[in-house]
Amino acid sequence: MDISDQVLVEKxxxxxxxxxxxxxxxxxxxxxxxxxxxxxxxxxAEDALQEAFLQVYRGMKSFEGRSTFSTWLFRLATNVCLMKxxxxxxxxxxxxxxxxxxxxxxxxxxxxxxxxxxRPEEALLSKESREKMLEALEKLPADYRAVFILRDxxxxxxxxxxxxxxxxxxxxxxxxxxxRLTLRGLLQNYFEKEGT
Amino acid sequence: MKCQDxxxxxxxxxxxxxxxxxxxxxxxxxxxxxxxxxxxxxxxKTISLYKYASSEPLPKEVHLRLHDFLKKKCQGC
Lengths: 196, 77
Hints:
The complex is a heterodimer of chains A (196) and B (77). In chain A, 68% of the residues lie in helices and 0% in strands. Chain A is mainly alpha-helical and 196 residues long. The N and C termini of chain A lie far apart (54 Å). The termini of chain B are far apart. With 77 residues, chain B is mainly α.
């Protein structure tokens, strides 16, 4: 039976390095996936992975267990990624007002929207489509991207996402909503071009 | 309910967190408004596609370098 995170944390605090290696092995794939989605660069993702776990080890004594270990780990890892993005100095522009995401109505007439949802999954998830999706993700401001990745790609709850990012649940919901609308718009443009 | 009015609550609707009365009004609107129905469906599909967009496995050499790095760094902690 797997030893719980909590037990491993106590062992690490007592100086058991093997327990730390077990925790690293348990979470390294998830943290790497988060980093590569945030940074889209394998070298930067590897740096972030190493930095995040080093911070975990160094901060272990002060970890009081007010949040779960995994939430704390993802908070550290997300912050490392956000710092790297800020250092790059290439933050995407701010998002549009909500209304700009809706199709435009001209003279009371309903706009036509191309419906791409019926396309086969293999076309929607082709290598090129997946590349476009990750490009679109990169266009989100980093704070919005982090919310979308944790909430919709990693399956965190609103509360867990808020704890990991140090923001309120209301802020999680607001950023998630805008991130989703932006990504939908970008995919709409892509699949519309693909479909014509 | 107008098309512009549905936008604000769409994520809550998709997540099943929207107030039931608003939910009913939204669904009623979509019955008569095909563009909004497509909009909601494409939004749902966008979210579900991203779940499968990338699942890079951790390369073995990255795993090995991580454990080496930590061993070296943490010995002096």
